[in-house]
Design brief:
Largest sheet: 7 strands, parallel
CATH class of one domain: Alpha Beta
Distance between the termini: 75 Å
Number of strands: 24
Length: 563
């Protein structure tokens, strides 16, 4: 037994240690770089869902709470910002976009919103007048489902209007291209050209190509389109990053890039030119996969600008171009069940190797057959290499059978979905699928109720960049004109709290980033967005009128609305 004197000394020592520990944690010793007050902050942190102020130090959140607590952290060099009562949410992340695709689309002919083939031709003709003789004309965004005639176009009218320039125009979903006669000649495509595996050439009655190349057939044209230079790619990426900031996005899950582009991103991040949380997925190339699997996963490179720990695969095509793989034929094309872009055995093999190397696998699947085959492949891979926290994903997961919905949570597979696809497709999806299959279409509520999280994205440039379009679609299942009344299949809606998590916390969880991102809680990156209205309380019909006033990344303002 210790003596009273010894006990007293020990008690005093313990008290001194405790006081010293408390003193070291006192806010006064850790002045903030930034303090924001007079805000309505939705933190997406269950421990403190709302707050009025926050403090930032070293690019991370230091404090979230009331103004008194935040201002107690103010030092001589602290910047203090009065938010004037505005709404603040965590920086939004698009869980499925194509960063370089957006950057290039911003520079090419924009065909989104065209309501006829004549409009497409008019925009291309306008660009051709400005282009050097013989230069390629590239565009993206046409959708025949928005035209009076919803059949695929043929090249004839385009070839007559622009005979002296090779033209290649990508469909809005990226799963088909329209090429004119000059482009097909450059690619040596003729009636004798065979359909490649996982692809289809649309043909006329004589067998001649009509100009539309679906899924893997696109490669026949793409191989002869001049590739951008490295500096052109750098400029395109910078433009895409600036566009994301404008809409309140601080990060993206970049859904598939080749090694050369990933290495360019590394170079940009190292030089401070990639001001974005970029979770890049490695494209399905055998040499690239071997290289990255050998090197191993890497996370939060260059102050949290780049993650390289995921692979992007493709199972099938898209619904709009009838390439999505279905278990039963298309309702409007009874001889067609879609296309398998990759063999299920390939998906299983890559998934098995990825598990051994510590990589996540994210596979594009839209049709019910495509989704089932991916779930089967994942299940076999996980049986061979059991990993508890793999977080494999299916990208899009648009059409599901009732039996496959609970398999996502059971296997630990995350459905990474895009709410704006539903509001873009709802006008014609029933024509493709029939009424019965629509019950499993864009089924967010069914997946949530079965125990899954549903990170939200846009698939830009397929859809518009603005993440609030997906937020509105998620809570209303209506288009920008608030049609249809009551929402399309409204039983599948998300709550506003879920829709906010789907743009913040759930993308972080889907990318192993939740310790750094997704909430405004102490220790997380100080990424946040200032909005001009409260999207959690205004009527759903007013959400799309919301303006992003400021975007902050790591406590630094990277966008401010011009007034």
């Amino acid at each position: 037994m210790r003596s009273p004197a010894t006990l007293a000394a020990a008690t005093l020592a313990s008290a001194a240690t405790l006081l010293a520990a408390r003193a070291s944690a006192q806010p006064a010793t850790q002045p903030a770089d930034l303090v924001v007050t007079n805000a309505r902050i939705y933190t997406v942190d269950e421990a403190r869902p709302t707050a009025a102020a926050l403090a930032v130090r070293g690019g991370r959140v230091l404090f979230v709470g009331d103004a008194r607590g935040a201002l107690a952290l103010k030092g001589s060099s602290t910047r203090v910002v009065d938010a004037d009562g505005r709404t603040i949410i965590p920086g939004m992340v698009d869980a499925h976009g194509h960063l370089l695709g957006l950057g290039i689309a911003l520079r090419n002919v924009d065909l989104t919103g065209t309501t006829s083939y004549d409009q497409v031709i008019e925009r291309v003709t306008r660009r051709a007048r400005e282009a050097p003789a013989g230069a390629w004309i590239v565009g993206r965004g046409w959708d025949q489902n928005d035209w009076g005639d919803t059949r695929f176009p043929t090249h004839d009218a385009l070839s007559r209007a622009v005979p002296d320039h090779p033209v290649v125009l990508e469909r809005v979903d990226g799963h088909a291209v329209l090429a004119n006669a000059a482009a097909m000649k450059a690619a040596s495509v003729t009636a004798q050209t065979a359909d490649p595996s996982g692809g289809r050439l649309e043909r006329d009655a004589s067998g001649a190509p009509t100009g539309v190349f679906v899924d893997n057939a696109q490669r026949l044209i793409d191989r002869v389109v001049p590739a951008p230079t490295r500096e052109e790619l750098r400029t395109a990426l910078k433009g895409a990053v600036a566009e994301l900031h404008r809409w309140g996005l601080v990060g993206v899950h970049d859904a598939g890039e080749p090694r050369a582009v990933i290495e360019l991103m590394e170079d940009m991040a190292q030089k401070g030119e990639l001001d974005l949380r970029t979770y890049v997925m490695i494209g399905d190339d055998s040499a690239a996969l071997a290289y990255y699997f050998q090197r191993g996963p890497r996370s939060a490179l260059y102050d949290g600008r780049l993650w390289e720990r995921a692979v992007k695969l493709y199972a099938d095509g898209a619904l709009g171009s009838r390439g999505a793989a279905l278990l039963e034929p298309y309702a409007d094309d009874p001889k067609n069940t879609g296309l398998l872009v990759s063999a299920p055995a390939h998906i299983q093999d890559v998934a098995t190797r990825a598990l051994r190397a510590g990589f996540q696998v994210n596979t594009h699947a839209i049709g019910d057959r495509g989704n089932r085959l991916v779930l089967d492949a994942y299940e076999k891979a996980l049986a061979a290499v059991p990993v508890a926290d793999h977080r494999f994903r299916i990208e899009h997961a648009q059409i599901l059978t009732h039996d496959d919905i609970p398999r996502f949570a059971a296997l630990g597979v995350i459905p990474s979905m895009q709410a704006s696809h539903q509001t873009s497709d709802m006008y014609w999806a029933g024509t493709r699928l029939g009424s019965t299959r629509l019950l499993g279409a864009y089924a967010w509520r069914s997946l949530l109720d079965a125990g899954s999280i549903v990170p939200n994205g846009s698939d830009f440039p397929v859809e518009q960049v603005n993440p609030l379009i997906s937020f509105h679609s998620a809570i209303a299942r209506q288009d920008a004109q608030n049609w249809p009344a009551g929402g399309w299949q409204p039983e599948q809606r998300m709550t506003r709290e879920e829709a906010l998590r789907a743009m913040t916390l759930w993308p972080a969880e889907a990318a192993f980033q939740e310790r750094d991102m997704g909430t405004l809680a102490p220790g997380r990156y100080a990424d946040f967005v200032v909005l001009d209205r409260d999207i959690m309380r205004v009527p759903a019909s007013e959400v799309l009128g919301t303006r992003v006033l400021q975007t902050w990344l790591g406590g630094k303002m990277v966008y401010e609305e011009k007034r």
